[in-house]
Amino acid sequence: MRPPARGAARLLSGAGLAAALLLPTAVPAHTAAQSGLSTADGKKGQELPPMPSVLDADAECTAASREKAQKQDWSRQRLDLDRLHGHGTGAGVTVALVDTGVAPDAEGLDGRVTADGSAAEDCVGHGTFLAGLIAGSATRLPGVAPGARILALRGTDTRGEANPALVAASVREATDAGADVIAVTVALPRRDSALTRAVADARRAGAIVIAAATPDPPTRGGTDEIPARVYWPAGEPGVLSVADMLPGGVRPDNALPTTGIDLAAPGAGVVSGGPRGDGHYLGAGASVAAAYAAGAAAVVRAAHPDDSPAAVTDRMTATAYPADIPQLDAYAAVTTVLGDAGTPAGAERTTDSVTVRDTSAADNATDRATLFVILGSAAVLAVLWAAFTLPRARARGWRPARAGGSAED
């Protein structure tokens, strides 16, 4: 009966060898699969067309996307929108969006868009994309404030190039219309006196003004040679300046450098719709982050209607995840009870630098668990291999078996 035993030993030896060979590659492959979720739409291998913020001079309007996302992207999970919407949807609040315009009949906006003249024509598609992040009502890909209304205003020409005069006029129009939140998602490299006055008047009228901390990064060339500067109207007093962040909580490598950022929000690999068709796109940049913050401000305003604009922005920063740049926590902004000093009741805020909150920790824990399982399996196979092999080796006097016979023949 020795041959069957020897065959079993060889089988286990082969299994142990296979486990050893697989061990170096198993964990990296798992890690790569997890990291792919940070820049895609949640479905491994699916690609979505990018949503531009500016069109080339000879480019046609952004075409309808033929692709649809199958799952929520990381940004909505990070903002915990499912739980947030149990406490508010921004109903009754109007968000003025100053960008490339918004298509009033766009998928998921359900007739909640007011757009007059050129603001109702969105050739670029960027404004409509952002409107979906603020107030979209799609089941799988909702906006932060699906009960809010959008007042579409143009701050760019038809190709998406920002224009100071248009931005200033749009902020004034939003103020005259009584908008509760004004989101300026274009950023200007120089301060404009008319825009400064328009922002000050908007805040005096009771509007919460939120602005992208920087323009979206250029599609061509790097940003290494671009010096740090303040962009406008994000640099105006009382304006909530919002920058984009990656899933790990840090700014993208190609983000334009700036100072005075108040808040960071998801701004990479974000999914939303466009002005034509029912397909989806991927967007990125500080404009995306500012749109998310504007949606959160709408839900906060609806839940705390007596709060001043300064109180709303203070609430959003006080309840943010503590980091070098505080990270937007829409749920906490709505539900946290603040103390007299404007900090969460029962909590002391620290001025020391703290570690950036990284949502990839769960993925790392999964990787470690996978590694332990593989190592454990390899160890068990090694023990079983030794248990079957060593006694036979002793019986043969540690001599290899001859072909076609046993060691005792």
What does this structure look like?
- The protein folds into 2 domains: 2-38 and 361-395; 74-335, Peptidase S8/S53 domain (Rossmann fold), CATH 3.40.50.200.
- Residues 1-45, 346-367 and 403-409 have low confidence and may be disordered.
- It contains 10 helices and 9 strands.
- α5 packs parallel to α6.
- It has a 7-stranded parallel β-sheet, sandwiched between helices. It has a two-stranded antiparallel ribbon with strand order 8-9.
- It is an alpha/beta fold.
Q: What is the helix fraction of residues, given as a range?
A: 25-40%
Q: Average pLDDT value?
A: 81
Tally the beta strands.
9
Largest sheet: 7 strands, parallel
Q: Structural class of the helix and strand makeup? A: alpha/beta
Named at the architecture level, the CATH assignment of the largest domain is: 3-Layer(aba) Sandwich
Task: Give the CATH H-level superfamily of the largest domain.
Answer: Peptidase S8/S53 domain
List unreliable stretches of 5+ residues: 1-45, 346-367, 403-409
Strand content: 5-15%
* CA radius of gyration: 28 Å
Number of domains: 2
**What name is given to the CATH topology of the largest domain?**
Rossmann fold
- Encode the helix/strand succession as letters: HHHEEHEHEHEEEEEHHHH
Lateral arrangement of strands in the main beta sheet: 2-3-1-4-5-6-7
